[in-house]
Amino acid sequence: MERSAGPVGVTAAGKVRGAVQDGITRFLGVPFAAAPEGPLRFRSPVPAPHWDGVRDAVAFGAAPPQVAPTPRAPSMWRPGDGLDCLTVNVWTPAPCSAGLPVMVWIYGGLWKHGAASMPHYDGATLAASGVVVVTFNYRVGFEGFGHLPGTEDNRGLRDQIAALEWVAQNIAAFGGDAANVTLFGQSAGAASIALLMGAPAARGLFRRAIAQSIPAGVRTVAEAEAVTTTIARAAGIPATREAFAAAPPETVLAVQDEPLRERDGLTAFAPVVDGDLVTGPVWAALREGAGQDVELVCGFTHEEFRGQGAPPPPDVDLAVVAEAIGLEKQSADDYRRAHPHLSDPDLFTVMLSDALVRMPTTWVAEAHARSGGRTWLYDFAWQGPTLGAAHGVDIPFVFGTTATRPAARLLGSPPPTECAVLSERIRTAWTSFAATGDPGWPRFTPDSPTTRVWDAPPSDVPYPLGDSRRIWQDHPRRTCPGVRSKS
After folding, report:
1. What is the value of pTM for the model shown?
2. Residues facing residue 31 across a β-bridge
3. Which among 326, 332, 346, 401 is least surrounded, fewest beta carbons within 10 Å?
4. What's the gap between Cα 201 and its chain centre?
Protein backbone atom coordinates (compact mmCIF):
# COMPACT_ATOMS: atom_id res chain seq x y z
CA MET A 1 0.00 0.00 0.00
CA GLU A 2 1.22 3.51 -0.79
CA ARG A 3 2.21 5.44 2.34
CA SER A 4 1.37 9.08 2.95
CA ALA A 5 1.80 11.45 5.85
CA GLY A 6 -1.23 11.75 8.06
CA PRO A 7 -2.84 10.66 11.33
CA VAL A 8 -3.32 6.95 11.95
CA GLY A 9 -6.49 5.36 13.31
CA VAL A 10 -6.84 1.80 14.57
CA THR A 11 -9.80 -0.37 13.56
CA ALA A 12 -10.56 -3.98 14.38
CA ALA A 13 -9.40 -4.97 10.88
CA GLY A 14 -6.18 -2.94 10.84
CA LYS A 15 -4.65 0.51 10.94
CA VAL A 16 -5.68 3.32 8.58
CA ARG A 17 -3.93 6.55 7.67
CA GLY A 18 -6.06 9.62 7.01
CA ALA A 19 -5.47 13.24 6.06
CA VAL A 20 -6.11 16.64 7.65
CA GLN A 21 -7.72 19.57 5.87
CA ASP A 22 -8.83 22.85 7.49
CA GLY A 23 -8.56 21.32 10.95
CA ILE A 24 -10.76 18.30 10.19
CA THR A 25 -9.25 14.81 9.97
CA ARG A 26 -10.85 12.49 7.45
CA PHE A 27 -10.49 8.78 6.84
CA LEU A 28 -12.05 7.68 3.55
CA GLY A 29 -12.80 4.32 1.98
CA VAL A 30 -12.33 2.16 5.09
CA PRO A 31 -13.85 -1.33 4.59
CA PHE A 32 -16.59 -2.26 7.02
CA ALA A 33 -17.43 -5.54 5.24
CA ALA A 34 -15.86 -7.86 2.71
CA ALA A 35 -16.45 -7.19 -0.99
CA PRO A 36 -19.85 -8.74 -1.90
CA GLU A 37 -18.47 -10.65 -4.88
CA GLY A 38 -17.98 -14.28 -5.86
CA PRO A 39 -19.64 -16.53 -3.27
CA LEU A 40 -20.58 -13.45 -1.20
CA ARG A 41 -22.60 -11.80 -3.96
CA PHE A 42 -26.29 -11.50 -3.07
CA ARG A 43 -25.48 -12.55 0.49
CA SER A 44 -25.61 -10.72 3.81
CA PRO A 45 -22.42 -8.77 4.55
CA VAL A 46 -19.56 -10.44 6.40
CA PRO A 47 -16.74 -8.66 8.28
CA ALA A 48 -13.89 -7.16 6.29
CA PRO A 49 -10.71 -9.25 6.22
CA HIS A 50 -7.79 -8.09 8.36
CA TRP A 51 -4.89 -6.26 6.68
CA ASP A 52 -1.30 -5.84 7.75
CA GLY A 53 0.54 -2.54 8.02
CA VAL A 54 -1.17 0.81 7.60
CA ARG A 55 -3.83 1.20 4.92
CA ASP A 56 -4.13 4.60 3.25
CA ALA A 57 -7.61 6.04 3.76
CA VAL A 58 -7.43 9.19 1.68
CA ALA A 59 -9.84 8.37 -1.18
CA PHE A 60 -13.44 7.22 -1.33
CA GLY A 61 -14.11 3.58 -2.10
CA ALA A 62 -16.06 2.47 -5.16
CA ALA A 63 -19.77 3.26 -5.33
CA PRO A 64 -22.22 0.35 -5.36
CA PRO A 65 -23.26 -0.81 -8.85
CA GLN A 66 -25.81 1.56 -10.40
CA VAL A 67 -26.60 3.48 -13.56
CA ALA A 68 -26.68 7.26 -13.92
CA PRO A 69 -29.72 8.84 -12.21
CA THR A 70 -30.48 10.93 -15.32
CA PRO A 71 -29.19 10.88 -18.91
CA ARG A 72 -27.30 14.13 -18.26
CA ALA A 73 -25.63 13.06 -15.02
CA PRO A 74 -22.54 10.86 -14.77
CA SER A 75 -22.87 7.47 -13.14
CA MET A 76 -21.24 7.05 -9.76
CA TRP A 77 -20.20 3.51 -10.79
CA ARG A 78 -18.48 2.07 -13.85
CA PRO A 79 -18.06 -1.62 -14.70
CA GLY A 80 -14.33 -1.49 -13.96
CA ASP A 81 -15.05 -0.38 -10.39
CA GLY A 82 -16.13 -3.87 -9.38
CA LEU A 83 -18.15 -4.79 -6.30
CA ASP A 84 -15.83 -3.82 -3.44
CA CYS A 85 -18.12 -1.02 -2.30
CA LEU A 86 -18.85 -1.58 1.39
CA THR A 87 -16.74 1.18 2.92
CA VAL A 88 -17.15 3.92 5.53
CA ASN A 89 -15.83 7.48 5.69
CA VAL A 90 -15.12 9.40 8.90
CA TRP A 91 -14.66 13.14 9.49
CA THR A 92 -13.55 14.04 13.00
CA PRO A 93 -12.59 17.39 14.54
CA ALA A 94 -10.51 15.72 17.26
CA PRO A 95 -9.40 12.13 16.64
CA CYS A 96 -7.46 12.03 19.89
CA SER A 97 -10.44 13.20 21.95
CA ALA A 98 -13.09 10.98 23.49
CA GLY A 99 -16.85 11.09 23.72
CA LEU A 100 -17.83 13.30 20.77
CA PRO A 101 -21.38 12.84 19.45
CA VAL A 102 -21.51 10.69 16.31
CA MET A 103 -23.73 11.36 13.29
CA VAL A 104 -24.11 8.57 10.71
CA TRP A 105 -25.57 9.46 7.31
CA ILE A 106 -27.68 7.11 5.13
CA TYR A 107 -28.17 8.37 1.57
CA GLY A 108 -31.31 8.10 -0.52
CA GLY A 109 -31.83 7.49 -4.22
CA LEU A 110 -35.01 5.53 -4.98
CA TRP A 111 -33.35 2.38 -3.57
CA LYS A 112 -31.33 2.18 -6.81
CA HIS A 113 -28.94 5.17 -6.79
CA GLY A 114 -26.57 6.78 -4.34
CA ALA A 115 -23.05 6.76 -2.94
CA ALA A 116 -21.38 8.28 0.11
CA SER A 117 -18.80 9.91 -2.17
CA MET A 118 -21.30 12.36 -3.66
CA PRO A 119 -19.94 15.89 -3.01
CA HIS A 120 -22.99 17.24 -1.19
CA TYR A 121 -22.47 14.54 1.48
CA ASP A 122 -19.04 15.87 2.47
CA GLY A 123 -18.94 15.81 6.26
CA ALA A 124 -16.22 18.39 6.94
CA THR A 125 -18.42 21.43 7.66
CA LEU A 126 -20.77 19.43 9.86
CA ALA A 127 -17.85 17.90 11.76
CA ALA A 128 -16.52 21.39 12.47
CA SER A 129 -19.56 21.83 14.74
CA GLY A 130 -18.02 19.32 17.15
CA VAL A 131 -19.38 15.96 15.99
CA VAL A 132 -17.85 12.91 14.33
CA VAL A 133 -19.54 12.39 10.94
CA VAL A 134 -19.72 8.95 9.31
CA THR A 135 -21.01 8.14 5.84
CA PHE A 136 -21.03 4.74 4.16
CA ASN A 137 -22.10 2.83 1.08
CA TYR A 138 -24.81 0.19 0.99
CA ARG A 139 -25.93 -1.94 -1.93
CA VAL A 140 -28.77 -0.52 -4.02
CA GLY A 141 -30.92 -1.75 -6.89
CA PHE A 142 -31.09 -5.48 -7.48
CA GLU A 143 -27.77 -6.07 -5.70
CA GLY A 144 -29.25 -4.71 -2.48
CA PHE A 145 -33.01 -5.21 -2.75
CA GLY A 146 -33.69 -7.82 -5.42
CA HIS A 147 -35.51 -10.92 -4.19
CA LEU A 148 -33.87 -14.26 -4.97
CA PRO A 149 -34.77 -17.72 -3.66
CA GLY A 150 -32.36 -19.17 -1.15
CA THR A 151 -30.77 -15.90 -0.05
CA GLU A 152 -31.52 -13.06 2.33
CA ASP A 153 -33.81 -10.20 1.36
CA ASN A 154 -32.98 -6.57 2.15
CA ARG A 155 -29.23 -6.90 1.77
CA GLY A 156 -28.99 -3.12 1.54
CA LEU A 157 -30.53 -2.78 5.01
CA ARG A 158 -28.22 -5.51 6.29
CA ASP A 159 -25.28 -3.52 4.92
CA GLN A 160 -26.52 -0.54 6.93
CA ILE A 161 -26.64 -2.61 10.11
CA ALA A 162 -23.11 -3.90 9.42
CA ALA A 163 -21.89 -0.31 9.04
CA LEU A 164 -23.52 0.62 12.37
CA GLU A 165 -21.83 -2.38 13.99
CA TRP A 166 -18.53 -1.08 12.61
CA VAL A 167 -19.27 2.29 14.21
CA ALA A 168 -20.07 0.66 17.55
CA GLN A 169 -16.81 -1.29 17.47
CA ASN A 170 -14.44 1.33 16.06
CA ILE A 171 -15.66 4.90 16.41
CA ALA A 172 -13.96 5.52 19.77
CA ALA A 173 -10.62 5.36 17.91
CA PHE A 174 -11.74 8.46 15.96
CA GLY A 175 -12.93 10.49 18.96
CA GLY A 176 -16.55 9.39 18.88
CA ASP A 177 -18.90 8.08 21.57
CA ALA A 178 -20.40 4.75 20.49
CA ALA A 179 -23.15 5.24 23.08
CA ASN A 180 -24.26 8.54 21.48
CA VAL A 181 -24.92 7.76 17.81
CA THR A 182 -27.49 9.68 15.75
CA LEU A 183 -28.61 8.34 12.40
CA PHE A 184 -29.58 10.92 9.80
CA GLY A 185 -30.68 10.30 6.24
CA GLN A 186 -32.94 11.43 3.43
CA SER A 187 -35.60 9.75 1.26
CA ALA A 188 -34.74 6.03 1.00
CA GLY A 189 -32.19 6.75 3.73
CA ALA A 190 -34.95 8.20 5.91
CA ALA A 191 -37.19 5.18 5.27
CA SER A 192 -34.22 2.97 6.18
CA ILE A 193 -33.95 4.80 9.50
CA ALA A 194 -37.64 4.26 10.29
CA LEU A 195 -37.28 0.56 9.48
CA LEU A 196 -34.08 0.21 11.52
CA MET A 197 -35.82 1.83 14.50
CA GLY A 198 -38.23 -1.11 14.47
CA ALA A 199 -35.69 -3.84 13.66
CA PRO A 200 -34.45 -6.00 16.58
CA ALA A 201 -31.11 -6.51 14.78
CA ALA A 202 -30.40 -2.75 14.99
CA ARG A 203 -31.48 -2.26 18.58
CA GLY A 204 -28.88 -0.47 20.66
CA LEU A 205 -26.80 0.64 17.67
CA PHE A 206 -28.09 4.22 17.72
CA ARG A 207 -29.71 6.53 20.25
CA ARG A 208 -31.27 9.22 18.07
CA ALA A 209 -32.50 9.60 14.51
CA ILE A 210 -33.17 12.38 11.99
CA ALA A 211 -35.32 11.18 9.09
CA GLN A 212 -35.57 13.68 6.23
CA SER A 213 -38.47 12.99 3.81
CA ILE A 214 -39.67 9.47 4.62
CA PRO A 215 -41.26 7.85 1.55
CA ALA A 216 -43.91 5.19 1.53
CA GLY A 217 -43.25 1.85 -0.04
CA VAL A 218 -42.31 -1.71 0.72
CA ARG A 219 -42.72 -4.85 -1.39
CA THR A 220 -44.48 -8.03 -0.47
CA VAL A 221 -42.55 -11.18 -1.36
CA ALA A 222 -44.98 -11.81 -4.23
CA GLU A 223 -44.40 -8.31 -5.61
CA ALA A 224 -40.64 -8.70 -5.29
CA GLU A 225 -40.78 -12.10 -7.01
CA ALA A 226 -42.67 -10.52 -9.93
CA VAL A 227 -39.95 -7.86 -10.27
CA THR A 228 -37.25 -10.55 -10.29
CA THR A 229 -39.10 -12.59 -12.89
CA THR A 230 -39.39 -9.59 -15.21
CA ILE A 231 -35.72 -8.64 -14.82
CA ALA A 232 -34.55 -12.24 -15.30
CA ARG A 233 -36.61 -12.59 -18.47
CA ALA A 234 -35.21 -9.33 -19.85
CA ALA A 235 -31.64 -10.41 -19.01
CA GLY A 236 -32.19 -13.87 -20.50
CA ILE A 237 -31.21 -15.73 -17.33
CA PRO A 238 -33.04 -17.97 -14.82
CA ALA A 239 -34.51 -16.25 -11.74
CA THR A 240 -32.02 -17.91 -9.38
CA ARG A 241 -29.21 -16.65 -7.18
CA GLU A 242 -26.70 -18.77 -9.06
CA ALA A 243 -27.66 -17.27 -12.40
CA PHE A 244 -27.70 -13.68 -11.13
CA ALA A 245 -24.40 -14.16 -9.28
CA ALA A 246 -22.80 -15.35 -12.53
CA ALA A 247 -24.07 -12.33 -14.48
CA PRO A 248 -21.93 -9.16 -14.53
CA PRO A 249 -23.55 -6.28 -12.61
CA GLU A 250 -23.90 -4.25 -15.81
CA THR A 251 -26.04 -7.02 -17.33
CA VAL A 252 -28.55 -6.67 -14.50
CA LEU A 253 -28.33 -2.88 -14.45
CA ALA A 254 -29.17 -2.69 -18.15
CA VAL A 255 -32.63 -4.18 -17.50
CA GLN A 256 -33.34 -3.20 -13.88
CA ASP A 257 -36.07 -0.75 -14.95
CA GLU A 258 -37.82 -3.29 -17.17
CA PRO A 259 -40.64 -3.76 -14.59
CA LEU A 260 -41.52 -0.08 -15.07
CA ARG A 261 -42.67 -0.82 -18.60
CA GLU A 262 -45.67 -2.59 -17.12
CA ARG A 263 -46.16 -0.41 -14.05
CA ASP A 264 -46.08 3.30 -13.31
CA GLY A 265 -43.42 4.60 -10.98
CA LEU A 266 -39.89 5.75 -10.43
CA THR A 267 -38.26 2.56 -9.18
CA ALA A 268 -38.78 -1.19 -9.20
CA PHE A 269 -37.11 -1.62 -5.81
CA ALA A 270 -38.02 -1.20 -2.16
CA PRO A 271 -37.47 -3.13 1.05
CA VAL A 272 -39.15 -6.53 1.03
CA VAL A 273 -41.51 -7.60 3.82
CA ASP A 274 -39.37 -10.44 5.16
CA GLY A 275 -40.88 -10.71 8.64
CA ASP A 276 -37.47 -9.90 10.07
CA LEU A 277 -36.11 -6.46 9.26
CA VAL A 278 -39.31 -5.38 7.53
CA THR A 279 -42.72 -6.36 8.89
CA GLY A 280 -44.88 -3.87 7.01
CA PRO A 281 -45.02 -0.17 6.08
CA VAL A 282 -42.30 2.05 7.49
CA TRP A 283 -44.55 3.23 10.34
CA ALA A 284 -46.00 -0.21 11.22
CA ALA A 285 -43.46 -1.38 13.83
CA LEU A 286 -43.32 2.08 15.41
CA ARG A 287 -47.08 2.06 15.82
CA GLU A 288 -46.69 -1.10 17.92
CA GLY A 289 -44.13 0.59 20.15
CA ALA A 290 -40.86 -0.57 18.57
CA GLY A 291 -38.08 1.99 18.73
CA GLN A 292 -39.78 4.12 21.37
CA ASP A 293 -36.45 4.51 23.16
CA VAL A 294 -34.99 6.28 20.07
CA GLU A 295 -35.44 10.06 19.98
CA LEU A 296 -36.70 11.09 16.52
CA VAL A 297 -36.65 14.24 14.42
CA CYS A 298 -38.46 13.79 11.12
CA GLY A 299 -39.87 16.06 8.46
CA PHE A 300 -40.51 16.80 4.81
CA THR A 301 -39.92 19.48 2.24
CA HIS A 302 -43.06 21.42 1.46
CA GLU A 303 -43.17 20.53 -2.25
CA GLU A 304 -41.80 16.98 -2.20
CA PHE A 305 -42.93 16.03 -5.70
CA ARG A 306 -41.10 18.85 -7.42
CA GLY A 307 -38.11 17.45 -9.27
CA GLN A 308 -39.25 13.83 -8.88
CA GLY A 309 -41.35 13.48 -12.01
CA ALA A 310 -42.62 15.21 -15.11
CA PRO A 311 -44.97 18.17 -14.54
CA PRO A 312 -48.64 17.36 -15.09
CA PRO A 313 -50.49 18.43 -18.25
CA PRO A 314 -52.75 21.48 -17.93
CA ASP A 315 -55.83 19.24 -18.22
CA VAL A 316 -54.76 16.73 -15.55
CA ASP A 317 -57.68 14.69 -14.18
CA LEU A 318 -57.34 14.87 -10.41
CA ALA A 319 -59.97 12.18 -9.87
CA VAL A 320 -57.76 9.73 -11.76
CA VAL A 321 -54.76 10.93 -9.77
CA ALA A 322 -56.64 10.38 -6.51
CA GLU A 323 -57.41 6.78 -7.45
CA ALA A 324 -53.82 6.18 -8.56
CA ILE A 325 -52.49 7.17 -5.13
CA GLY A 326 -55.06 5.09 -3.26
CA LEU A 327 -57.77 7.63 -2.46
CA GLU A 328 -61.39 7.82 -3.63
CA LYS A 329 -62.23 9.87 -6.72
CA GLN A 330 -64.10 12.45 -4.64
CA SER A 331 -60.91 13.19 -2.75
CA ALA A 332 -59.96 15.40 -5.69
CA ASP A 333 -62.81 17.73 -4.76
CA ASP A 334 -61.70 17.60 -1.11
CA TYR A 335 -58.31 18.90 -2.21
CA ARG A 336 -59.93 21.64 -4.32
CA ARG A 337 -62.00 22.81 -1.33
CA ALA A 338 -58.93 22.76 0.90
CA HIS A 339 -56.89 24.80 -1.60
CA PRO A 340 -59.34 26.99 -3.57
CA HIS A 341 -56.55 29.29 -4.76
CA LEU A 342 -54.60 26.52 -6.53
CA SER A 343 -54.98 25.30 -10.11
CA ASP A 344 -55.42 21.60 -10.81
CA PRO A 345 -51.77 21.22 -11.97
CA ASP A 346 -50.62 22.80 -8.69
CA LEU A 347 -52.98 20.52 -6.77
CA PHE A 348 -51.37 17.58 -8.56
CA THR A 349 -48.07 18.52 -6.91
CA VAL A 350 -49.78 18.83 -3.52
CA MET A 351 -51.47 15.43 -3.87
CA LEU A 352 -48.33 13.62 -5.02
CA SER A 353 -46.24 15.34 -2.33
CA ASP A 354 -48.72 14.07 0.26
CA ALA A 355 -48.87 10.54 -1.13
CA LEU A 356 -45.18 9.98 -1.67
CA VAL A 357 -43.64 11.64 1.40
CA ARG A 358 -45.59 14.16 3.46
CA MET A 359 -48.26 11.76 4.76
CA PRO A 360 -45.87 8.81 5.31
CA THR A 361 -43.59 11.12 7.31
CA THR A 362 -46.58 12.36 9.29
CA TRP A 363 -47.67 8.79 10.04
CA VAL A 364 -44.20 7.92 11.27
CA ALA A 365 -44.19 10.97 13.57
CA GLU A 366 -47.67 10.13 14.88
CA ALA A 367 -46.86 6.46 15.40
CA HIS A 368 -43.68 7.23 17.32
CA ALA A 369 -45.26 9.98 19.42
CA ARG A 370 -48.35 7.93 20.29
CA SER A 371 -46.20 5.00 21.43
CA GLY A 372 -44.36 7.30 23.83
CA GLY A 373 -41.31 8.11 21.73
CA ARG A 374 -39.82 11.62 21.93
CA THR A 375 -40.63 13.15 18.53
CA TRP A 376 -40.06 16.41 16.67
CA LEU A 377 -41.53 17.30 13.24
CA TYR A 378 -40.50 19.91 10.67
CA ASP A 379 -41.64 21.30 7.30
CA PHE A 380 -38.81 22.63 5.12
CA ALA A 381 -40.65 25.44 3.33
CA TRP A 382 -37.78 27.62 2.07
CA GLN A 383 -38.20 28.20 -1.66
CA GLY A 384 -35.19 27.56 -3.85
CA PRO A 385 -34.86 29.65 -7.03
CA THR A 386 -35.18 26.70 -9.43
CA LEU A 387 -37.52 24.03 -7.98
CA GLY A 388 -38.96 25.65 -4.88
CA ALA A 389 -39.13 23.50 -1.74
CA ALA A 390 -38.39 20.36 -3.72
CA HIS A 391 -37.40 16.87 -2.62
CA GLY A 392 -33.77 16.95 -1.52
CA VAL A 393 -33.41 20.73 -1.23
CA ASP A 394 -32.66 20.35 2.49
CA ILE A 395 -29.54 18.18 2.04
CA PRO A 396 -26.97 20.91 1.24
CA PHE A 397 -28.30 22.98 4.14
CA VAL A 398 -27.71 20.10 6.55
CA PHE A 399 -24.16 19.44 5.32
CA GLY A 400 -23.23 23.05 4.63
CA THR A 401 -22.49 22.14 1.01
CA THR A 402 -24.71 24.75 -0.64
CA ALA A 403 -22.01 25.72 -3.18
CA THR A 404 -21.51 22.22 -4.62
CA ARG A 405 -22.50 21.24 -8.13
CA PRO A 406 -25.34 18.91 -7.03
CA ALA A 407 -26.75 21.71 -4.86
CA ALA A 408 -26.77 24.14 -7.81
CA ARG A 409 -29.68 22.24 -9.39
CA LEU A 410 -31.85 23.26 -6.43
CA LEU A 411 -30.20 26.42 -5.13
CA GLY A 412 -28.75 28.01 -8.24
CA SER A 413 -25.14 29.14 -8.65
CA PRO A 414 -24.24 31.07 -6.66
CA PRO A 415 -26.90 30.20 -4.08
CA PRO A 416 -29.03 32.98 -2.56
CA THR A 417 -27.33 34.89 0.24
CA GLU A 418 -29.81 33.71 2.89
CA CYS A 419 -28.68 30.09 2.35
CA ALA A 420 -25.65 30.51 4.59
CA VAL A 421 -27.66 31.69 7.60
CA LEU A 422 -30.37 29.05 7.16
CA SER A 423 -27.76 26.32 6.73
CA GLU A 424 -26.02 27.37 9.96
CA ARG A 425 -29.34 27.30 11.83
CA ILE A 426 -30.18 23.83 10.57
CA ARG A 427 -26.71 22.47 11.29
CA THR A 428 -26.95 23.89 14.80
CA ALA A 429 -30.31 22.16 15.30
CA TRP A 430 -29.07 18.82 13.94
CA THR A 431 -25.81 18.80 15.92
CA SER A 432 -27.53 20.04 19.09
CA PHE A 433 -30.00 17.19 18.79
CA ALA A 434 -27.14 14.73 18.30
CA ALA A 435 -25.35 16.06 21.38
CA THR A 436 -28.25 16.66 23.78
CA GLY A 437 -31.49 15.30 22.33
CA ASP A 438 -32.92 18.82 21.86
CA PRO A 439 -33.15 20.29 18.33
CA GLY A 440 -34.39 23.63 19.65
CA TRP A 441 -38.14 23.60 19.05
CA PRO A 442 -41.14 22.09 20.90
CA ARG A 443 -41.86 18.39 20.65
CA PHE A 444 -44.57 16.93 18.40
CA THR A 445 -47.13 15.18 20.61
CA PRO A 446 -50.65 13.83 19.99
CA ASP A 447 -52.10 16.72 22.00
CA SER A 448 -49.74 19.41 20.71
CA PRO A 449 -48.47 18.63 17.20
CA THR A 450 -46.07 21.56 16.95
CA THR A 451 -44.05 21.71 13.75
CA ARG A 452 -40.88 23.66 12.96
CA VAL A 453 -41.18 25.48 9.61
CA TRP A 454 -37.70 25.94 8.16
CA ASP A 455 -37.76 29.20 6.26
CA ALA A 456 -36.01 32.55 6.48
CA PRO A 457 -36.68 33.05 9.37
CA PRO A 458 -37.84 29.72 10.91
CA SER A 459 -41.05 29.54 12.95
CA ASP A 460 -42.97 27.05 15.09
CA VAL A 461 -46.61 26.44 14.17
CA PRO A 462 -49.39 23.92 14.69
CA TYR A 463 -49.18 21.00 12.25
CA PRO A 464 -49.49 22.74 8.85
CA LEU A 465 -51.07 19.95 6.76
CA GLY A 466 -54.31 19.48 8.65
CA ASP A 467 -56.49 19.46 5.52
CA SER A 468 -54.36 16.81 3.85
CA ARG A 469 -54.25 14.77 7.04
CA ARG A 470 -58.05 14.81 7.28
CA ILE A 471 -58.38 13.68 3.64
CA TRP A 472 -56.06 10.75 4.30
CA GLN A 473 -57.08 9.84 7.85
CA ASP A 474 -59.48 7.03 6.91
CA HIS A 475 -57.25 5.74 4.12
CA PRO A 476 -55.88 2.16 4.46
CA ARG A 477 -52.38 3.59 3.93
CA ARG A 478 -51.29 1.74 0.83
CA THR A 479 -49.76 4.74 -0.91
CA CYS A 480 -47.79 4.33 -4.10
CA PRO A 481 -44.24 3.21 -3.27
CA GLY A 482 -42.78 4.16 -6.63
CA VAL A 483 -44.27 1.34 -8.71
CA ARG A 484 -48.00 0.85 -9.15
CA SER A 485 -49.96 -1.13 -11.67
CA LYS A 486 -51.44 0.86 -14.55
CA SER A 487 -54.61 -1.19 -14.32
Report:
1. 0.95
2. 87
3. 346
4. 19
